[in-house]
Amino acid sequence: MQEVHKPKKPLIFYYGIVLLALLLFNFLAMPWLAQRQIQVVDYGTFMDMAEKKELGQVEVQAQDNQILFTNKDNTVVFKTGMMPDPDLTQRLKDSGAEFSGEIIQQANPILSFLLSWVLPIVIFVALGQFMSRKLMERAGGPNAMAFGKSNAKVYVKSSQGIKFSDVAGEDEAKENLSEIVDYLHNPDKYKEIGAAMPKGILLVGPPGTGKTMLAKAVAGEAGVPFFSMSGSEFVEMFVGMGASKVRDLFRQAKEKAPCIVFIDEIDAIGQKRDGRVGGNDEREQTLNQLLTEMDGFEENTGVIILAATNRPESLDPALTRPGRFDRRIPVELPDLQGREAILKVHAQKIKLEEHVDLSKIARMASGASGAELANIINEAALHAVRDGRRFVSQQDLEESIEVVIAGYQKKNAILTDQEKKIVAYHEVGHALVAAMQSHSAPVQKITIVPRTSGALGYTMQVDTGNHYLISREELENKIATLTGGRAAEELVFQICSTGASNDIEQATKLARAMITRYGMSDDFGMVALETVNNQYLGGDSSLACSAQTQTEIDKQVVGLIRQQHEKAVKILEENRDKLDEIAQYLYEKETITGEEFMDILNR
Ligand code: ADP
Known about the structure:
Blueprint lengths: L1 E2 L7 H26 L1 E3 L2 H9 L3 E7 L4 E6 L5 E5 L6 H8 L2 E2 L3 H5 L1 H31 L13 E4 L14 H15 L1 H7 L6 E5 L6 H12 L3 E5 H4 L6 H16 L2 E6 L2 H4 L10 H16 L6 E7 L7 H4 L4 E6 L5 H12 L10 H7 L5 H17 L7 H13 L10 H20 L6 E5 L10 E4 L10 H22 L7 H16 L13 E3 L8 E3 L3 H28 L1 H14 L1 E3 H9 L1
Helix pairs in contact: 1-5, 6-7, 6-8, 10-12, 14-15, 14-16, 16-17, 18-19, 18-22, 19-20, 19-21, 20-21
This protein binds adenosine-5'-diphosphate (ADP).
């Protein structure tokens, strides 16, 4: 897939050329043109002509030591040098010559008029025309008045076009979209039976899951032109401009049909219209125009509109009704197989060592999007180059996951001995509580090397397979594991440190969700007390209950976490010898693997 556009030279380039041409003309051509008309003669000829009264005009240029004169008809200009001649004035007077100061200009009146008046005007008009054309091309189109042009990027089919095979995982989305490809290949099959293709298809999902890629892949597979524009590009400073851009986009698309129009981040223009005073007029007009255009073209014209958004709930209902964007394709975060497939696709671009276990990497990167996985592979390749190796190893990949989770290793963070000990106990506390409970993900790695994100250490747990349902017990165990770090500090050093802030935040979030959203509290039962607003972007939520209930929720959250914290303390007390042993080992080694941890535990 290649974007079609001409390479553009900077405007300064054209200004430069014109200026150079003008300078050359002034310094070379003008004097030459002027000189060409003048005949050089000797002083004798001048005197002869004066005697014979054949002179027209005479100009004595004392500073240049020369005399310019013309014949009687003023058609030829002559030039001669000056001689010491005291009678010159008298002789010229006798000859009847006219004394003048502007022989050259007068001698060629037409030429001088052309040079001094017409030529500059012609040059400036031409320059103006040229510049305005260039500016217009820059603004997006050859027509006069470039306002309101859509500026959509147009891609044509090319041999490197993105295909479905480049998009790993996302099988459901691909299956759904391959119907569109089939339609674009042979529309008659559908027309015959009377089936109408959806006019618009909405791809919804978290950022970086491959929505743009999928849209491009549809165009690549179908081999049709692909118009791409972002929702925000429609919205301009002037009201009405966006609407006119929409019109232009659809006009172009209809000319090029069959084709695909892709509008990225459609929520920028497609947000719910609300009757607020002083609302965004420009956005609403743009949306209205889009709605009208989508109604305006008949079914089966061959124009398919694909749009992508992370915020489907904020879209205007008029936009998502059947007849407009009537099909919605979820593009979710990849599952384990999906992650492995995406890693494989991107690993083809780099040189991997043999025996690299991508499925382990996929397991470690749980919850990562396609874009993050692509980034992990790239970070690993960069790490290998930094180390001066020619192939990417398993360690590079694992290290790059840690970079994505926790940032780079801090080279010069100096912890005191006591701090290092506390961090070691803290991390082993987590790991031990996790290991001693059922249904916890196995510990993969424990490290107390500080990271740039501020983490002084962390315990990585990796699930073995896909996990779609989580039970109440598992959630409680998770909270207990999160409190395990603080529990170890209290048990061993009888202190509370700031190191547990992140654990506390996560544990609170989990406990809250259990009570308000998952119906896991005994008092409230299955009542939704909270709604999620933005499921693909962070999932912030708003409470939907009375103030008293909120107070009750807070009490229950505190109770739940306290209960799990006590459980964690109890587990650690019972395994105090293992806690000491593993913490000491971690303190010495700084990083230990899950196997080493389990070995000591099972000894
Ligand atoms: P979105 O539009 O959903 O935000 P993109 O389609 O722009 O995401 O994806 C960004 C990048 O992430 C792509 O260029 C690609 O490298 C990578 N990527 C995302 N999903 C996938 C996938 N399913 N297969 C392969 N690469 C992917």
